[in-house]
Amino acid sequence: MKTKLILAAAMFAFAAPAAKAQVVIDMNLITCGQYLKAEEPDKVLISSWMSGYFMSGKNLTTIDMRYVKRNHEVIGKYCKGHKDAKLMDVVAKHGK
């Protein structure tokens, strides 16, 4: 329970500045090149969101941080050679 609260607080902390700026991001449009240019905290947020998105499709309510970290690294490496690829497609094919 404590882990869930910490994770929720962390996500809120990242989302709060975006909410003030009224920024809307269509995750389906992000390319690998855009992802690579993002600051590291934004990459972690995007990776975490995508992990949750794909896990919800499997009706899973847990997050295995080992996979979030692994996916963050694998996707980053793949994106270096495929900057025009849509990030959601890459995560769907190469993520766990």
What topology does this entry show?
Blueprint: H1 2-21, H2 32-37, H3 40-57, H4 65-80, H5 87-94
Helix pairs in contact: 3-4, 4-5
Alpha-carbon Rg, integer? 13 Å
CATH superfamily: HNS-dependent expression A
Question: What does the main sheet amount to?
Answer: none
Number of domains: 1
Helix content: over 70%
The CATH topology label is 10k-s Protein, Hypothetical Protein A, Chain A
User: Which CATH architecture?
Assistant: Orthogonal Bundle
Number of strands: 0
> What is the 3D form?
globular
Overall mean pLDDT score?
79
Short description:
The chain has 96 residues and is mainly alpha-helical. The protein is built from five helices and no strands.
Structure write-up:
By secondary structure, the protein is mostly helical. It has one domain: 10k-s Protein, Hypothetical Protein A, Chain A, CATH 1.10.890.10. The chain has five helices and no strands. The longest helix is centred in the first third of the chain and has 20 residues.
Index terms:
globular; 0% strand; 10k-s Protein, Hypothetical Protein A, Chain A; 5 helices; mainly alpha; disordered N terminus; 71% helix; 96 residues
